[in-house]
Specification:
alpha/beta, OB fold (Dihydrolipoamide Acetyltransferase, E2P), five-stranded mixed barrel, five-stranded antiparallel beta sheet, 15% helix
Length: 519
């Protein structure tokens, strides 16, 4: 007879029954009716979990794959968490976030999709839990801490249980251009905006830094005095000006305070990293703002111009712009004056374009200089009458051509003579004492001899030929031409008031053409 051997499972199994004192055997009960008043179907249904969309549930992770995580929440089937619903971070391996057997919370996204699966979101559950905590921190004016997980347009994304947005302008006390070094770092920040409906959380690290460095900032501001000069480094350039780091705080140089000249964009004057000297204009202790000026450290071109020039002087300038009421002429570096349309010419002018064009260079006279209003009135009409030339132009054309009062007196082949000749359209300035005479010439020609009050043009020749052309007179002119033994021609001699043209010839020939008389 072989020996009876028991397997380990048989040894570990509970006894089949019990014996009483009399040796009577009582078998072990197989089952008990513990359903009470419930039916079997009701008992089955009681073991199943009923869920609704948006409900927060808790379950155990039963499987982790690259494309999904299965979570047992006691429902008729395991719930599925897609990778995008595991974390607020993008592209993270599910094995780094959850492990099998771990208990986690999730929100029901859909009880049953088109494939019959229960869709869950671990990320939404984190949002729900985080919102409550974030709202409490915001109400208590507290601070949040989180890791920077992403760089987006205009700032950073910080993991604070949900995606918090940190604008680039609020990362540091001064604006930071390169945000990549912040990836993976943990930062502290204040909550400045919270909107649960829009799922929007805006953070500010600068507010936290200002709060922690408040005492230092207050001390720095109290040390600043309006009018003092400070050196600093340009930290950022914006459309409305430039920020300058003064060694503890940033001050703003508005675009109007960058230069005495017109500035289209601050970048044309300063660049990030430039070390400049500025003057403190204003210190606002309540708002902790500093107003600076760069042009205050430079020479005022208006002061310089007013100190070197006076009313009545002639200066050389370039036409920069035409307007209906006149033209603007640049007479210095950053200095423009107005030539009113009434000061453009001695005759009536309808439009400035009839006299000057943009870019044209010409002489003008200063007729008014208002330093307080920074306005200069100029005249082209009065410049044509002559006057005292500004000192810098005397030096250019030669001091020998001007008297002690600055009036032009001329000089042999001087640059000043040539400039005035070009201005008035004359080929040369002749000495009035010189009167060239040619007695032995066979022919004499006189052209373009205008007179303003009363002129008398007499041309006589004996034994030769004489021609007189274009001799206009304004008041009363008398043109007499006589020739003996020769030929005389008088052409185009208009008169405005009363003119008498007499032509006589003895023993010769006389021709009178195109004679007009205006009275």
């Amino acid at each position: 007879m072989s020996e009876l051997t028991l397997t380990p499972s048989a040894l570990d199994s509970p006894p089949m029954g019990t014996f009483d004192e009399s040796g009577e055997y009582t078998p072990r009960p197989i089952t008990e009716n513990d359903l009470g008043s419930l039916s079997l179907d009701e008992a089955y249904s009681a073991t199943m979990v009923d869920v609704e969309n948006g409900q927060l549930v808790e379950g155990t992770v039963v499987r982790v794959d690259k494309d999904e995580v299965l979570l047992d929440i006691g429902y008729k089937s395991e719930g599925v968490i897609p990778p995008r619903e595991l974390s607020i971070r993008n592209g993270v391996d599910p094995n780094e976030l959850v492990t099998v057997g771990e208990k986690i919370e999730a929100v029901v996204l859909q009880r049953e999709d088109k494939e019959g699966r229960l869709l869950l979101s671990k990320k939404r559950a984190q949002y729900e839990r985080a919102w409550g905590r974030i709202e409490e921190i915001k109400e208590g004016d507290g601070m949040v801490s989180g890791a920077v997980i992403e760089v987006v347009k205009g700032g950073l994304i910080v993991d604070i249980g949900l995606r918090g947005f940190l604008p680039a302008s609020l990362v540091e006390l001064r604006r930071v251009r390169d945000l990549q070094p912040y990836i993976g770092t943990t930062i502290d920040a204040k909550i400045i905006e919270l909107d649960k409906n829009r799922n929007n959380v805006v953070l500010s690290r600068r507010a936290w830094l200002e709060e922690t460095q408040k005492e230092q900032r207050e001390e720095f501001l109290h040390d600043l005095r309006p009018g003092e000069l400070r050196k600093g480094v340009v930290s950022s350039v914006v459309n409305f000006g430039a920020f300058v780091d003064l060694g503890g705080m940033d001050g703003l140089v508005h675009v109007s305070e960058l230069s005495w000249k017109h500035v289209d964009h601050p970048g044309s004057v300063v660049a990030v990293g430039d070390e400049i000297e500025v003057q403190v204009l204003e210190v606002d202790l309540s708002r902790e703002r500093i107003s600076l000026s760069l042009k205050a450290t430079q020479q005022d071109p208006w002061q310089e111009f007013a100190g070197a020039h006076q009313v009545g002087e002639l200066v050389y300038g370039r036409v920069t712009k035409l307007v209906p009421f006149g033209s603007f002429v640049q007479v210095g570096d950053g200095i423009e004056g107005l030539v009113h349309i009434s000061e453009m010419s001695a005759h009536h002018v309808d439009l400035p374009e009839q006299v000057v064009t943009p870019g044209e260079e010409l002489w003008v006279k200063i007729i008014d200089l208002d330093l307080q209003r920074r306005r200069i009135s100029l005249s082209i009409k009065q410049a044509a009458e002559g006057g005292v030339v500004a000192a810098e132009y005397q030096e250019h054309f030669g001091e020998h051509a001007y008297d002690d009062e600055g009036n032009f007196i001329g000089g042999d082949s001087s640059e000043g003579q040539e400039a005035w000749a070009e201005l008035y359209g004359e080929d040369e300035i002749a000495d009035p004492e010189e009167a060239p005479a040619e007695e032995a010439s066979d022919e004499a020609v006189v052209e373009d001899a205008p007179t303003e009050e009363s002129d008398e043009d007499v041309a006589s020749a004996e034994g030769g030929e004489q021609v007189v052309e274009d001799a206009p007179t304004e008041e009363s002119d008398e043109d007499v031409a006589s020739a003996e033994g020769g030929e005389q021609v008088v052409e185009d001699a208009p008169t405005e008031e009363s003119d008498e043209d007499v032509a006589s010839a003895e023993g010769g020939e006389q021709v009178v053409e195109d004679e007009t008389t205006e009275t």
